[in-house]
Amino acid sequence: MTNKYVYNFNEGKKEMKSLLGGKGANLAEMTNLDLPVPPGFTITTEACNRFYEENEKIWVELHEEIKKHLKDLEQRLGKSFSDEDNPLLVSVRSGAVTSMPGMMDTILNLGLNDISVKGLAKSTGNERFAYDSYRRFIQMFSDVAMEIPKVRFDNLLDDMKEKKNTELDTDLTKEDLKKLVEQYKEVYSEEIGEEFPQEPVKQLELAIEAVFKSWNNPRARVYRKINNISHKLGTAVNVQSMVFGNMGETSGTGVAFTRNPATGENKLFGEYLINAQGEDVVAGIRTPQEISHLEVSMSDVFEEFKNITRKLEEHYKDMQDIEFTIENKKLYILQTRTGKRTAQAAINIAVDLVKEEVIEKEEAVLRIEPNTLNQLLHPTFEQKALENAELLSKGLAASPGAASGRIYFNAHDVVEAKARGEMCILVRQETSPEDIEGMVSAEGILTSRGGMTSHAAVVARGMGKCCVAGCSEIRVSEEKKEIRVKDFVLKEGEYISLDGSTGNVYKGNINKVQPKLSGNFGEFMEWVDEIRTMSVRTNADTPKDANQALEFGAEGIGLCRTEHMFFDEKRIPSVRKMILSTTEEERKNALAELLPFQREDFLGLYKVMKEKPVTVRLLDPPLHEFLPTKKEDIESLAKAMNIDYENIMDRIEELDEVNPMLGHRGCRLAVTYPEIYKMQVRAIIEAAIEVKQNGFKDIKPEIMIPLVGHIEELKYVKGQIIEEIEAVFKEKEIEVDYMIGTMIEIPRAAITADEIATEAEFFSFGTNDLTQMGFGFSRDDAGKFLDEYVNKEILERDPFQAIDRKGVGKLMEIAVEGGKSTRENIKLGICGEHGGEPSSVEFCYELGLQYVSCSPFRVPIAKLAAAQAVVKNI
Amino acid sequence: MTNKYVYNFNEGKKEMKSLLGGKGANLAEMTNLDLPVPPGFTITTEACNRFYEENEKIWVELHEEIKKHLKDLEQRLGKSFSDEDNPLLVSVRSGAVTSMPGMMDTILNLGLNDISVKGLAKSTGNERFAYDSYRRFIQMFSDVAMEIPKVRFDNLLDDMKEKKNTELDTDLTKEDLKKLVEQYKEVYSEEIGEEFPQEPVKQLELAIEAVFKSWNNPRARVYRKINNISHKLGTAVNVQSMVFGNMGETSGTGVAFTRNPATGENKLFGEYLINAQGEDVVAGIRTPQEISHLEVSMSDVFEEFKNITRKLEEHYKDMQDIEFTIENKKLYILQTRTGKRTAQAAINIAVDLVKEEVIEKEEAVLRIEPNTLNQLLHPTFEQKALENAELLSKGLAASPGAASGRIYFNAHDVVEAKARGEMCILVRQETSPEDIEGMVSAEGILTSRGGMTSHAAVVARGMGKCCVAGCSEIRVSEEKKEIRVKDFVLKEGEYISLDGSTGNVYKGNINKVQPKLSGNFGEFMEWVDEIRTMSVRTNADTPKDANQALEFGAEGIGLCRTEHMFFDEKRIPSVRKMILSTTEEERKNALAELLPFQREDFLGLYKVMKEKPVTVRLLDPPLHEFLPTKKEDIESLAKAMNIDYENIMDRIEELDEVNPMLGHRGCRLAVTYPEIYKMQVRAIIEAAIEVKQNGFKDIKPEIMIPLVGHIEELKYVKGQIIEEIEAVFKEKEIEVDYMIGTMIEIPRAAITADEIATEAEFFSFGTNDLTQMGFGFSRDDAGKFLDEYVNKEILERDPFQAIDRKGVGKLMEIAVEGGKSTRENIKLGICGEHGGEPSSVEFCYELGLQYVSCSPFRVPIAKLAAAQAVVKNI
């Protein structure tokens, strides 16, 4: 840290962003590019941090440094503060390292006092303007720097307008405004106990303190939390001489993008107002004109501006968002920054810039925030429609997209309503595998419980279906078929709308916009594929999902959850028969009924995937998930299966678990009932033999054993499996290649991965469960308090969304090292939900995994993240 | 591995136990001590293992080696096989490294055939005896070596007796026996398709094969599993020349202990039968005589025997169990081994041997299996009474002791029955904190679910109360108030008996024996205390438990579970009010009601513990555990609290969790509701101030924060706590020392222990939860399949009983290293249930922990284990 806390604009450059803030660095850069930037200086972010150390006061040395720079500014401009003819006025603006639009405070026209107001009147030839500016400055300063309630000034203004019997500020005369200035100053001294400061240096210091303090105002803190910005960065303060766009018809102010931020089209895009200040543009009193109109009204200025925008874009090598003011035909550039844009525009701009040879492909790949691809793949709400919508609540953005429909509270009702032609939203406290059909039929899913990896979230993402999960504020009564939230009660059949990309839940039916994929998207993804080194597979259980994923460029299946195949109505009776069997014989018979179904399942997947790798996870959930829970369902099951109701209840009770997550599931089932996995493996291998005989010579199923925690478990189950595979080979008189591997999802498995690799040919990280057990967080329950953890800054991010590198990531690292130490070429992948989350994908790259696997709609996102990881790590 | 597979007795020594087996090594040792051991040789355990590699056949080289040793034996004894005058006969016995009494097979009188039977008749002068021996040998050989059903021979014997119209074998004449021999040989050739082997070498090899095979018979495998003996050790086979105790009134056979195995008294203890073989003693046909009687009947022999026993005890430095035979006034020693003994005898013998200067204190400490101390601390069933008892089932030996009582199915009924003066057993599917009062009133607790660390098990151990948990075979219907097991239905009020040391559950009321602590116990424990370096604390929540633990020598409290204090009927209303509060204010009021109770709790503990360390764990369980679950209880709560029934139901539903183990509990509660811990900490500190003011200058409470997984959690909660402590100091104008530490019970905490130690002054390992999360086993559910895991040898031991060193232990190791790397002198302890399990205590010693903490009744066990760890690691 240096002792220099204030930089003239010509002392900085764009690389000094962390010291000068984004705005300050850009002002410096533009100054050094000889662009017409009103001169000024920047007080650094380090000063902001020291300000907090100094108990939120400006210390002596900083005071001196500021004074010195003010003097310097006066000299350079030939203007001085409190001048009766041509006074110096400045703006004071925050400037964080990362732009936080509208989050912090700004003060304009600082330097106005009882003397300089006259100078301003003289230099602009507009006394009314000068006093209106003074009035506004007092109010802004009082509000921002001194926290005097704005309403006190507004009341005076309203009184004055009432007296003058008008509704418009503009109808007030300069005399009225002079009076208001006096009244405003009185309010100030009443509230503060001091006269309104006439000394510009005093004004400035109070303003600087206010900006520093605004770094920690609640809305700024919330913004940073949402956007993952550290609270420790601090903000810089930019003090810049004022220029005026409101000096008549040869003045004006505006904003322009060097390219179209909605479409990416390479054409200047923007608007301006003649005879106006920036705040007038924001206030929207007059309708601004399109930037192209400037060519007509002031062609020289337009020409100069166009050249400058081109220069800036070339210099920054990206589309710029530029603020400018024209003061008496003189153009000033007030700000430039990289322009925000839609995902579609981002792709088009990046591709165009490569073609224009401005940037390399690698740079283009870095330009797109992977998650924004969601905008390209899913419908979104129409912006206009959204503005009028009633926001009911906000849950977790569990699966992106926008959906509207009538609410129904169980799968059955959704299926029926859909059959009647209705659009439905399935609303549940939480979903379970029994709800699958309802989820398929619904436009979207809303749950009041569960986190980012709850059943609803995982399944919805798999389907590419919009889902808002864990919306705990909403009370769902499945019995009464209604939801209560705030003062609303919504009954079955009423409309709601879900935004799965933000987690917002709205009342009513909101218009949607369908995504369009431009040709540039395809080209961009080709570059992504060229650059990235990790494969991207998909989690898919059906040929339909697999097809969808292939369209998005999936290179294999990393996780086929076989249990999803068990819920089909043709199969569930056999599954239940299997579970309710009391002898191995009965169980084998029930499994024999399932075998042809399972074989067809795998056959379907193999056919779609051609010879791409397919990893099949053997049965994972506890058996009780397959049994009905409601009395009437149990009764009809009893009847159908010709078993005593009591007996079924006994069995259900026996299977019930206190902590099902840590219960009798995964390979533990196979230790107790080896015949289940044997049936599954037989189906996998028989199907593989069939496609091999039909030309897929290289078919090589990857059989994955879940929930292994101990090498002996794996040995035991693998032994059983191989026995069955050998039996199939013998029967069919033909063999196929296959691999046997395991999930690494239990901490003990990670810790003892060296042992486990003696038997496992591949590891696939199940980071959902590894996070659950590593943290001791139940994904179904933690939603309730994880929010609070993030709000209280205990956790930076929900570890179910992004891999917790220090803890869960460390377990992964131990496992990777252990696995490689035993089996040098062990295949390593991830199939947890994190496999589609960009920062987690990057982490997987750093760990040296060969592939990630994610739900179909996340495949492009994962690919982009994988390519970015390569570029970042060059 | 050498190529030598057969050792003459004089080639071995007692240190060669792993090669020669226990019996073989001792026979060798005795041979070399010049004791009168009938000569013979031992086939090694390595031969047994190779036997299995050779597909369970004796290979050529071994065949040759055996033949060579047989020849040698014939030469040494001047006897030969198949001799018509004085034939050599041998016994063939198994001999494992660790004694497995009765588990494997033995064949006597091998070498008898149609010729040698005549020789035996001649040499013994007893033709009837010779043919009876031959008959028995054929049957034994056929049964053991050839697996011919014994019943076929028994039928022939019965036919013969019927024909002779007698019930006694002894009434059969030598002619009858000769006939039987012929019939037996016919059975043999029918069954095997070959003549009965006349060649002794052939007989011997078949017998050796049979003994090797018996190593893997089911009862031997089960025995090894129960006793934690590896299946890989193999058994040796001892071939020894026969001597006969049944050659008339100057012959006999017997067994003696060098000291009394029941009391430890230093006096020869044993019995013998004149004119008998070993099997006659076992059969119990005649009543044996006390060993002292031998002095009267054969004083020379007795004198020799006494000298030999003294010599053997001196040589082995431990009480010996010796088998002997007298053949025509000549004494032979057939076997010596360390004698089994009761815990009481073990202590007395060990102490006596130290006083006799035979062994050192360190050796004495190693002599006692720590778990056997349970016999000294808890009542046991009377052996005789047990023999007639009906065994209903077997569950987990969750808390030692013996208890009988009438069964009741809920806490309320137990309390009422106890008030009527009944002895009760509380029977539940599983217990919950609501059952505490019932557990206090019951003699013992039986549950059908849950493992070694289930609620029932943990609480019962804490109380020193007998408990059998997870007895899954028993179907408990709490509604019908009955249990069903096998064909029995037991109704409320019927008697059962529980053995908490074995897990056995019996029908009816069985007499019990109360333990007696001899003076030697105290002296022994003093040596233990001298030797051990780790402290032993106790887990105790009440002054009563703490007092009990102090009596057993506890050196502090390692875990005070504050939630146990919340269930008292005076407090639970306030607890519930706190939980049902909707505002912080309401919650604070409810907590204020609890504060005086909590203060009294800690005051009570401090007073009992004097200035010994007391670690208080702040509230740990999820809040829903404190709410009622039955409709009527909820209704009465609603009435009592004047809250809507619906509202309470809403709140209960809201608090309900899918996986409570991984839910909103521990320090997570304190993140959401900081005021709960603040109240508890205030109580801890105010109580400490009070005792400090009353003379306990060195009081220093250790405040333990549970369920920390992330450094930021700890920081946050610690910050809240310290704020409250400082407030108390200010109010009271006096300070006390205190420490703040954390449980290490979440894998992530272990992994990031280096970070956590920056804030934690001590770590206490919560190995129950660390095992749950490390393995992904719910302790409430895993009972169902863990048995199978142990049976299928997937796990060596239930990891909730003994620390899994490779996985959970590795996490502990990482945590110890991490903790020390940040805070060199960090205090390290364990308060999980493993803290009282000997092998786990040893592991904690190896890890370098400073203390273990366990339930009061386990304190002596933990102390002994801690001392043994020191001795073993010298």
Automatic annotation (TrEMBL), chains A, B:
Q: Where is the PEP-utilising enzyme C-terminal domain?
A: 518-869
Domain of life, per lineage: Bacteria
- Tell me the GO molecular function terms: ATP binding; kinase activity; metal ion binding; pyruvate, phosphate dikinase activity
CC cofactor: Mg(2+)
Annotated positions binding substrate? 561, 617, 745, 766-769
SUPFAM superfamilies in alphabetical order: Glutathione synthetase ATP-binding domain-like (SSF56059), Phosphoenolpyruvate/pyruvate domain (SSF51621), Phosphohistidine domain (SSF52009)
Q: Which UniProt keywords apply?
A: ATP-binding, Kinase, Magnesium, Metal-binding, Nucleotide-binding, Pyruvate, Transferase
The entry's active site is: 455, 831
Write down the top EC class of this protein.
transferase
Q: Which reaction does it catalyse?
A: pyruvate + phosphate + ATP = phosphoenolpyruvate + AMP + diphosphate + H(+)
List each copy of the PEP-utilising enzyme mobile domain by range.
423-503
Per the database record, which ranges form the Pyruvate phosphate dikinase AMP/ATP-binding domain? 18-56, 61-292, 302-351
Q: What is its EC number?
A: 2.7.9.1
Specify which residues bind Mg(2+) according to the UniProt entry for this protein: 745, 769
**Pfam families listed in its UniProt record:** PEP-utilizers, PEP-utilizers_C, PPDK_N
Q: Which InterPro entries match?
A: ATP_grasp_subdomain_1, PEP-util_enz_mobile_dom, PEP_util_AS, PEP_util_C, Phosphohistidine_dom_sf, PPDK_AMP/ATP-bd, Pyruvate_phosphate_dikinase, Pyrv/PenolPyrv_kinase-like_dom
The record's comment on protein family reads: Belongs to the PEP-utilizing enzyme family.
Supply the PANTHER family for this chain.
Answer: PHOSPHOENOLPYRUVATE DIKINASE-RELATED, PYRUVATE, PHOSPHATE DIKINASE 1, CHLOROPLASTIC
What NCBIfam families does the record tag this protein with?
Answer: PRK05878.1 (NF004531), pyru_phos_dikin (TIGR01828)
- Name of the protein: Pyruvate, phosphate dikinase
